[in-house]
Specification:
The two termini are 36 Å apart. The longest helix is centred in the N-terminal third of the chain and has 22 residues. The chain has one domain: NAD(P)-binding Rossmann-like Domain (Rossmann fold). β1, α1 and β2 form a beta-alpha-beta unit. 38% of the residues lie in helices and 21% in strands. Bound molecules: NADP nicotinamide-adenine-dinucleotide phosphate (NAP). NADP nicotinamide-adenine-dinucleotide phosphate (NAP) binds next to α1 and β4.
């Protein structure tokens, strides 16, 4: 089966490409660096010729709300026109658990628009909504840092390893269209506790303050904001296991 992975050079995309190739499929990693640009439409027709499944795990280069919206709107228009012309049978997109609960940060409005475009495209689809990646935990800490203090909400969240996200996306690409599905990590944490654990593992001595009013990228969190519904598929890689692998990779 021929599968095109848009964003195939990214954190998740590169893993999806590897996993699908290991399972014996013909996979094209598509991104501007390989001559495929979803915003301009460049290279889409050629990439989609003879393609059964398109996986879209690209991301907007800017997280600013208007720029991200423009990115996902243009990408949606170009991708679905090209998919219909090529007779693509399944579209798989990657989104975020709780997107509609996170609209205080404009980027999530853009992700919601991306989801709507998928749902209204007329192409059979699976939208995989994932929780925060372990690889993103350092970014959460950084965004919450002022000087030597990191102010973080104790709200629950259930992050997961990029390898587990990629496995879920690869499985979705090989299954019939499922509509919307959710994936999450194997364990639930309070965000402040996980940030403390992460910084400690990195020998970072910043002071983590637990603050229920601390914002997450401008969003006021509660225990429901970032957590999946019951029935979500759970990954298998724990945070401790991910930290061990991360430290081994860093040492190599
Ligand atoms: N961060 C999280 O915790 C989280 C949680 C759930 C879901 N997600 C979602 O996961 C998705 C993937 O994130 P990621 O971290 O893997 O992204 P990433 O590492 O930043 O990779 C982005 C990819 O998009 C490609 N791209 C950028 N502009 C493009 C364009 N005009 N046309 C085609 N491809 C383009 C890039 O290609 P080049 O390398 O050629 O520039 C790259 O391959 C995102 O949609 C995000 O919303 C993230």
């Amino acid at each position: 089966m021929k599968i095109v992975v848009i964003g195939g050079s990214g954190l998740i995309g590169s893993r999806v490409v590897t996993q699908l190739r290991q399972r014996g499929h013909e996979v094209l990693a598509a991104s501007p660096s390989t001559g495929v640009n979803t915003v301009t439409g460049e290279g889409l027709k050629e990439a989609f010729t003879g393609t059964d499944v398109v996986v879209d795990v690209a991301n907007s280069p800017s997280f600013e709300s208007a720029a991200a919206l423009a990115f996902f709107e243009a990408a949606g228009r170009n991708i679905f026109a090209a998919e219909k012309a090529a007779g693509v049978k399944l579209h798989v997109a990657l989104s975020v658990v709780g997107t509609e609960r996170l609209l205080e940060f404009g980027y999530f409005g853009a992700k919601l628009a991306q989801e709507r475009a998928v749902e209204n495209s007329g192409v059979p689809y699976t939208i995989v909504r994932a929780t925060q990646f372990f690889e993103f935990v350092g970014g959460i800490a950084q965004e919450a840092t002022q000087g030597q203090t990191v102010r973080v909400s104790p709200a629950k969240f259930q992050p997961m390893a990029a390898d587990d996200v990629a496995a879920a996306v690869a499985d979705a690409a090989l299954a019939p269209a499922q509509g919307m599905v959710e994936v999450a990590g194997p364990e639930s944490f309070q965000m402040d506790q996980l940030i403390r654990k992460y910084l400690s593992a990195k020998n970072d001595r910043k002071d983590v303050i637990t603050d229920p009013d601390a914002r997450y990228f401008g969003i006021k969190l509660n225990d429901r904001s970032l957590t999946p519904d019951t029935g979500a598929r759970l990954g298998t890689i724990t945070f401790d296991e991910w930290l061990r692998r991360d430290q081994t990779t860093a040492a190599a």
